[in-house]
Amino acid sequence: MELRPPPSTPSAPANDRLVRALLILNLVGLLALAVFLWLHAGAGETEDPEAAEHARDVASKLKSAGALDEAAALYEVYLASTDATADTRASVAYSLGSTYLDDGRYEKALRWFYEAESLGVGELQDQLTKKVVHTLERLGRYHSAKAVLDSRMALAPDGEIARSADDPVVARIGDEEIPRSAVLRVLDELPPEAAAQLQGTEARGELLRKYVADELLWRKAVKLEYDRDPQVRRSYEALLKQLAISKFVEKDVVPKIEVDPADLKNFFEANRARYEREGETLEQMPPEVERDYRLSKVQAAYNEVIESELSTEDVELFPERMGDG
């Protein structure tokens, strides 16, 4: 993986920025497709109630011992195989989500809160909503958190289900209504600079148009079974691999990077010509110097990880067999 500082370019007109943001949104759509295919890979279920209760018992002990991942794996077995009521299964999922939340593992907490929500938590719904909002905010998904609040339903006086006034219907596809919250939620998947370009009535209108168009094209693609196409599956697997590697670098490599002031000064002096500010001192150096320094540190750390993996695993490389064309 080669990390390079982005080239400096003049500010683009508003229309160009909007186009770039929508192009990034296209990439996010591909990521959503990958997630959909992943979630629909499926797994077999067991129908042994005794085994299900055994799994729940062991899972409860693991949870108490703090082995959350192992407990979660067994709870999944339990939820897939038990004949317990939906309320009971929802309570298990809600409890596990709360434990992950307290442990600061927000992505896993969200996964289990959504599991509880899909099963129906009854009187716990208000508490669940608060926990989902809290978890989304901790993950920096502020549009999604607001969407959860905006999309809460209320019972109108005539007995009809009414959507919050803060979350109006912005489109319809046949009988299906699309709330504003569903469209704005995609902004959380964009880089901050791209999301910032999708502000204003015109940009939001284009976002809505693209959201609906993508939904229509997705439905048509599924109808034609392109989601099962071997090439699509291979592309999905390659994309999933790169996403997982990026997450590994983000969580396991980047946090270990430390900025050494003396090392930063040496980096600045060694690359002074790159910044074309010959008269600058360390205190006056451009802000991009630290960014580039961090990138170089990440690249070096990433290379160290690669070398370590290649040296510790049973790996043989035959580059001469690659050919030259």
SSE layout and pairing:
Layout: H1 14-39, H2 49-64, H3 68-81, H4 86-102, H5 106-119, H6 125-138, H7 142-150, E1 153-155, E2 161-163, E3 169-173, E4 176-179, H8 180-184, H9 192-197, H10 201-223, H11 230-253, H12 261-270, H13 272-275, H14 288-312
Antiparallel strand pairs: 1-2, 3-4
Helix pairs in contact: 1-11, 2-3, 3-4, 4-5, 5-6, 6-7
The CATH architecture term of the largest domain is: Alpha Horseshoe
What is the topology, as strand order, of the major beta sheet? 1-2
Estimate percent helicity: 55-70%
Strand content: under 5%
Order of helices and strands: HHHHHHHEEEEHHHHHHH
How many beta-strand runs?
A: 4
Distance between the termini: 22 Å
Question: Could you give me the name of the CATH homologous superfamily of the largest domain?
Answer: Tetratricopeptide repeat domain
Shape: globular
Which structural class fits the helix and strand makeup?
mainly alpha
CA radius of gyration = 25 Å
CATH-assigned fold name of the largest domain? Serine Threonine Protein Phosphatase 5, Tetratricopeptide repeat
Biggest pleated-sheet summary: 2 strands, antiparallel
Query: Stretches where pLDDT falls below 50 for ≥5 residues?
Result: 1-12, 32-46, 153-162
In short:
This protein is mainly α and 325 residues long. It is built from 14 helices and four strands.
3D structure, described in words:
The protein is mainly α. It has helices spanning 14-39, 49-64, 68-81, 86-102, 106-119, 125-138, 142-150, 180-184, 192-197, 201-223, 230-253, 261-270, 272-275, 288-312; strands at 153-155, 161-163, 169-173, 176-179. It folds into two domains: 14-228, Serine Threonine Protein Phosphatase 5, Tetratricopeptide repeat (Alpha Horseshoe), CATH 1.25.40; 231-315, no CATH class. The protein contains 14 helices and four strands. A hairpin with a 2-residue loop joins β3 and β4. α2 (49-64) runs antiparallel to α3 and α6 (125-138) packs antiparallel against α7 (142-150). The longest helix is centred in the N-terminal third of the chain and has 26 residues, at 14-39. Mean pLDDT is 76; it is low at 1-12, 32-46 and 153-162.
